[in-house]
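=== How it folds ===
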Amino acid sequence: MGDLLRGKVALVTGSGQGVGRAIAIALADEGAKIVTNNRAPVKKNTANQLDEDKLKKLTSEQLEWYNKEIEKYTGDAETTAAAIRAAGGDATACFGDITDFNEAKKIVDKAAEVYGSVDIVVNVAGAFGFAPIEKITEELWDKVTGVKPKGYFNIIRHAVPYMRKKGWGRIINCSSPAFMGGDIRQAEYCAANAGVHGLTWGLACELA
């Protein structure tokens, strides 16, 4: 375990699975205290390919590998935090929907309550849907753009005062080349990621 981020507190949204989980673990490996986040706990890891009878036939090594692989894609904030703690790091899970302004405040304040402040914010959470523009519903539009950029703004809005107080902070917003457009029939996703780019450049100029 490294010490590049020793003494820093990092909040990673969307860190229950996939890229967010990998980032949270990587930050912890460099010594940061981590607050993991996703909307809500998920059900116990299961996969349709292997039922209980088939799982019983696996060796202990195979079962351990299987569970780790399944957890990567069906985990939540607590399973990621548990993995960090098991590796010797310090992590706390905080469930909550970042698309809600007040809920985002609770997430940030929880991080400060547990670890004293928030030094690093990594926004990874995202949502998407496939539909041509004439079939995009208001619900789908709001679902996707509610996370990016609104949810990112919500978290940043409440975290920046803690960073200003300490005179140091880092904000990392994950986006996608989709903001350039293309033929993926996800105009709402393109707009959401374009919003993230605009938000990030604006913050860079303002907070520098």
